[in-house]
């Protein structure tokens, strides 16, 4: 490779979010990535919302809780995080001495962006008698302002670990917070944030789909809005939804979450039919544009050149680690 091209790509990294270098189309990227894994003692952790090729080359595929647990116990020297920025940040918080790379640094999250730390700090100061429970889909700055982190797999258990009369702020997802309020009977104060993917499902189109497929069950992620959750036959985290479709005896499901999870559902239950719940726009399915910034080419490049990587201020890292450790301890004690 011409070193000038690499230098230009590196200097454009901030603007592009990834190394913009042409990859030889004759390369078998699956073979090359496997080689790089061995050479660099690297592990690829991928979220269920990644494209199928990335899921197929990953060493571990999971939701936020599974990925955080895997990041905590890995012996690899380099963690390649195929997900969005706050997830790679969480891996770095847990592994300060390891290199954590991400295929596209600009793979962000609308939910995380809906809760800027300076505004949240002011909100928190207005409610000094509240503890702060934050969903893992937030920046390190918000984690550092929290008492405990939760994922959709463990939110209920963790909220219930507080005494009934403890006042709680829940951030940043108002839909997940409202759902947890409902199932626990709590009255947590909710930050007004939401995920763009889970908020745009069309109730009208889903109702039509239910009529067309009366045998199909509607399953939904708790980041979806209340009216949709009320229609659902099952509500659960991404891992919970996958497990449900594996163990349940229905033959078809309308899946109200990001479409990436359908790849694992179809692999686990090839005899069943999975229909992505449609959004309220002209698309047939609901992709997260942030998650889908990552591609196999960008994954290969970030492993080869070990960039972009996550760099974090140590004071911030230590403050953000405390509530994550607390989550992992409560989850382990609850057998999650
Ligand atoms: S699906 Fe929603 S919460 Fe998940 S990364 Fe995309 S925008 Fe964020």
From TrEMBL:
Pfam name, any one: NadA
Cofactor note: Binds 1 [4Fe-4S] cluster per subunit.
Pathway it works in: Cofactor biosynthesis; NAD(+) biosynthesis; quinolinate from iminoaspartate: step 1/1
Coiled coil residues, start to end: none
Catalytic activity from the UniProt record: iminosuccinate + dihydroxyacetone phosphate = quinolinate + phosphate + 2 H2O + H(+)
EC number, as in UniProt: 2.5.1.72
Major subcellular location class: cytoplasm
Family, similarity comment: Belongs to the quinolinate synthase family. Type 2 subfamily.
Role this protein plays: Catalyzes the condensation of iminoaspartate with dihydroxyacetone phosphate to form quinolinate.
The protein's name: Quinolinate synthase
Species this protein is from: Niabella pedocola
Name of the encoding gene: nadA
């Amino acid at each position: 490779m011409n070193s000038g091209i690499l230098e230009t790509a590196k200097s454009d990294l901030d603007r592009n979010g990834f190394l913009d270098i042409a990859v030889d189309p004759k390369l078998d990227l699956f073979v090359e990535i496997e080689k790089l894994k061995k050479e660099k003692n690297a592990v690829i952790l991928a979220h269920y919302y990644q494209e199928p090729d990335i899921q197929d080359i990953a060493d571990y595929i999971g939701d936020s809780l599974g990925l955080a647990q895997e990041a905590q116990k890995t012996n690899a020297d380099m963690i390649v995080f195929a997900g969005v920025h706050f997830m790679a940040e969480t891996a770095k918080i847990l592994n300060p001495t390891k290199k954590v790379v991400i295929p596209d640094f600009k793979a962000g999250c609308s939910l995380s962006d809906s809760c800027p730390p300076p505004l949240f700090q002011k909100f928190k100061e207005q409610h000094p008698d509240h503890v702060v429970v934050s969903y893992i889909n937030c920046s390190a700055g918000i984690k550092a302002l929290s008492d405990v982190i939760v994922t959709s797999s463990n939110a209920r258990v963790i909220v219930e670990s507080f005494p009934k009369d403890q006042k709680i702020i829940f951030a940043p997802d108002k839909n997940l917070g409202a759902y947890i309020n409902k199932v626990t009977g709590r009255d947590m104060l909710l930050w007004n944030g939401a995920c763009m993917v889970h908020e745009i499902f069309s109730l009208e189109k889903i109702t039509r789909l239910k009529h067309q497929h009366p045998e199909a069950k509607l399953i939904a992620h708790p980041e979806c809005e209340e009216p949709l959750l009320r229609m659902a036959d099952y509500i659960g985290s991404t891992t919970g939804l996958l497990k449900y479709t594996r163990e349940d005896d229905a033959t078809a499901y309308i899946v109200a979450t990001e479409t990436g999870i359908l790849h694992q559902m179809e692999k686990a239950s090839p005899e069943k039919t999975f229909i992505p719940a449609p959004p309220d726009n002209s698309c047939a399915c609901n992709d997260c544009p942030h998650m889908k910034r990552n591609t196999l080419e960008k994954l290969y490049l970030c492993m080869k050149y070990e960039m972009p990587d996550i760099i974090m201020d140590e004071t911030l890292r230590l403050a953000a680690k405390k509530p994550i450790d607390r989550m992992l301890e409560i989850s382990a004690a609850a057998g999650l």
